[in-house]
Design a protein that fits this description.
The chain is an alpha/beta fold. The longest helix has 18 residues. Helix 3 links the parallel strand 4 and strand 5. Helix content is about 35%, strand content about 25%. The chain is built from ten helices and nine strands. It starts with 7 loop residues before the first strand and ends in a 5-residue tail after the last helix. The protein is globular. The structure holds guanosine-5'-triphosphate and magnesium ion (MG). The site of magnesium ion (MG) has 6 residues, from helix 1.
């Protein structure tokens, strides 16, 4: 008689340089958009839990901010979020970009995971952008660097290789009972995700330094159940008056554009109508001031 396979459960930290595709992969694993994605690096600022329940396994994915050298308080907070994910991880997925040589971000990442008890899997992402044989030297390089680690070429965007990657991860999870109900997707609340949706629209709809100078807080979140409506007020913080001008735009046009895009996506996410009011405030140098960084919701 064969033994029943034991339940496996564990934390899986998604790590890599900014823009490697970590959030795209999280969303692909979950089959749902949980983490915001933009073309710009340093989009993710928090550690974001995404729960995937399979028959016999529960994967607790931790999406993290891209690993880079941090100087400002906000970047230090982001690296704190990445390091706390490593500390909790049973499996670490190092995500690199196909055809892109390892650089100082990867060196820093390897330094971060030194001494970690986690099993390591390397995902070589964005293979849709390169010729198949171009990935071979990169596979050889990583297997030399991390003997024993599984190395899986994937396209988080198109889905190739993601099932193989999932199998390699599950095989490395410790035995243990599920920690969350099967239908739970995350432990973060709706307010958090609405703030993230607004931040994503700012990233997408403004250029230059603006995305990096902004933070979003939710000041009011009132649900009107029988009218199936959420009334939300949020504040966008910027560092300078000139940035406030850009975010508001001529006659308020830019803020309106951000507000409409965010409202539509928040409605899809929450499944109710949303009334969204946005305010813009200047908080000089909040990105450099540890206390302000914490006040605006970045903890490490
Ligand atoms: N061609 C291609 N593009 C991808 C793939 N995965 C992600 N991208 C793109 O790469 C960009 C960055 O993706 P994200 O998922 O935001 O990357 P990230 O690693 O979470 O970035 P940070 O949060 O800034 O650290 C986006 O424009 C994605 O559409 C892929 O497999 N193929
Ligand atoms: Mg991200």
């Amino acid at each position: 008689m064969t033994q029943p396979t034991p339940q496996r459960t564990g934390y899986v930290a998604l790590l890599g340089r900014p823009n490697a595709g970590k959030s795209t992969l999280l969303n692909r694993f979950l089959g749902q958009k949980l983490s915001i994605i933009t073309r710009k690096p340093q989009t993710t600022r928090h550690r974001i839990l995404g729960i995937k329940s399979l028959p016999g396994a529960q994967l607790l994915f931790l999406d993290t901010p891209g690993i880079h050298h941090a100087r400002k308080a906000i970047n230090a907070a982001m690296m704190g979020a990445a390091r706390s994910a490593i500390a909790d991880a049973d499996v670490v997925v190092i995500m690199v970009e196909a055809g892109r040589p390892a650089g100082e971000e990867e060196a820093l990442l390897l330094q971060f995971i030194e001494g970690s008890r986690a099993n390591v899997v390397v995902a070589i992402n964005k293979v849709d952008r390169v010729r198949k044989d171009a990935v071979l030297p990169q596979i050889a390089e990583w297997s030399e660097r991390l003997p024993g680690a599984a190395i899986v070429p994937i396209s988080a965007l198109e889905g190739d290789g993601v099932n193989s990657l999932e199998k390699e991860i599950v095989a490395r999870l410790p035995e243990g009972p599920a920690l969350y109900p099967e239908d739970q997707l995350t432990d973060l609340n709706e307010r958090f995700f609405v703030a993230e949706i607004i931040r994503e629209k700012i990233f997408q709809l403004t250029g230059e330094e603006i995305p990096y100078a902004t933070a979003v807080t939710i000041d009011e979140f009132e649900e009107v159940p029988d009218r199936k409506l959420a009334r939300i007020q949020a504040t966008i913080y910027v560092e300078k008056d000139s940035q406030k001008g850009i975010v508001i735009g001529k006659g308020g046009a830019k803020l309106k554009e951000i507000g409409t895009a965010a409202r539509l996506e928040a409605e899809r996410f929450l499944g109710v109508k949303v009334g969204l009011k946005l305010w813009v405030k200047v908080d000089p140098n909040w990105t450099r001031d540890e206390r302000e960084v914490r006040r605006l919701g970045y903890n490490w």
